[in-house]
Amino acid sequence: MMNSLFLVESIGVQNWTYILVGVTFAIYIGIAIWTRASSTKEFYVAGGGVSPLANGMATAADWMSAASFISMAGIISFAGYDGAVYLMGWTGGYVLLALLLAPYLRKFGKFTVPDFIGDRYYSNTARFVGVVCALLVSFTYVAGQMRGVGLVFSRFLEVDINTGVIIGMIIVLFYAVLGGMKGITYTQVAQYCVLIFAFMVPAIFISIQMTGNPIPQLGFGSTLSDGSGTYLLDKLDGLSTELGFNEYTEGSKSMIYVFAITLALMVGTAGLPHVIVRFFTVKRVKDARKSAGIALLLIAILYTTAPAVSVFARMNLIDTVSNKPYVNVPEWFKKWETTGLITFDDKNKDGLIQYVADKSKNELEVDNDIMVLANPEIAQLPDWVIALVAAGALAAALSTAAGLLLVISSSVSHDLIKKMVNPNITENGELIAARLSAVVAVCVAGYFGINPPGFVAATVALAFGLAAASFFPAIILGIFYKRMNKEGAIAGMVVGITAMLLYMVKYRLGWFDDALPDKSEWWFGISPEGFGTLAMLLNFIVSIVIMKFTPEPPQDVQDIVENIRIPSGVAEASGH
Amino acid sequence: MTKNNAKAYWKENIKYVLILLLIWFLVSYGAGILFKDALNQIKMGGFKLGFWFAQQGSIYVFVILIFVYVHLMNKLDKKYGYDE
Prior knowledge:
The complex is a heterodimer of chains A (about 575) and B (about 80). Chain A is mainly alpha-helical and about 575 residues long.
């Protein structure tokens, strides 16, 4: 009886999921065919004529990955106040982008980030270091996205996880290879709409259920709708303490730990090549500034809703399971138990679920990702809302994967082949090279999605740390410090990245020692995720010291720097 | 003339950027992290203020900062004849 009921219900959700995922995929493919790229300029920067609004939407989708959509709210749900490092870290970087990078890089008018590094520092060595950094950052990031695609397929459509990855690869391959940046831009616009709708609908439903307020951002600061007059956050703080957890609104991490991670994520955001290149696609410098504002506004809609979802989900979870008899748990509990994302172990054999902070007594383990994926089910929302979450998660993962693949392919075809190996390559030859490298990149990403190396999850923060340690200082100094020369910049990037890699390998992966070193050995109490902050400072210091002892850059380079500071007279983005 | 013009433009630009970044720092690292505990003594509806800045307020301010910058720079571009 139980089983057949479950089956009937799951067929409902499944059909909805097939319909919504099918329709959204058809839209993406339709856009890809409609926006085929016919020149390298269209392939690399969508022809350079994207409107600020479209670019803002595309940037937002590009930026918000499977991690933002699926994992972030869940992480915050369990971390409480400390989760703010992601909220501030992954939004504050846009202020740096808009004020310090985007307008000047747009004025500079090139195709890629290594392009800027190579030209500004008048050196192919610098360009090569840039290419290596761009590839390292993008590959670590993209493997996680493909894995996310596979997970969503396997959980919602009950296909094999590898089949899911392959379906995702084919879709991305289709529009990234065919359309290049042009195809990616317009599919990302569609993907933003899908993902934000999918994130907001359940959040609004649940906010109304719990607090009567339809705006989640206000809802989680309101009183409960049960008529008790208690504030939701006060109740959650109280329950958390009762169960032995920290108060939800108080942190458990040290101030320097929180500070360092937040700064590393912000600076890393501003240095990520797949985000920076989006600002090469608009027409004028003022459009670059404006589209950074629009992008952050659109990102902020999700990022200010996420902490509300975290609170609702944590509250719902405690309400539903804490001290409840295991035999009476709702359907969703059983369903997610079969995926291994929820586990229950009745340690004291009383048949009740003890969910407490004390590890020896706690009987319930809940995976972070559940909080978003199962939230609609926990709140008993209609089937179509549950299906919508699957379509939204896929949109988030695919849009980010596509943006990263473009960085990889343009780094190879433009920076390596055209600028370093074979400058005489024809336009058509370069376009073919770009498409081929995109195909290879998709295959490599897919391989890592199917066979994830054990350290992928541990090294996601490495992408931010690497970007913070390498690109950010080199670009900032390149714009704001005319005297900065190639010797300083190259030394800074190499030292910054090496320091970051070594710290990660030692303190996150533990490859230098027999066992992972204890947290007490961290420098100044800074975690590997936050080390990007120190590595960035190191880069700045090394760059400036080396520069002082080496010749100043040639006059024409100094003239270029003067020129990029003036917004008018923008040349079309070009590779020459 | 154009060289001095460019210099004056750049100087004003830097001034705006520094002021806006100071605010950026104060709302996130200041209110959200360094002075969180003190601000948490104050409550705004159901929110402790430090917690609110860390998970909500700083993000709203970030958005406003960029649009203020866009507005200021558009005016500055016109003033120095760099508008297009």
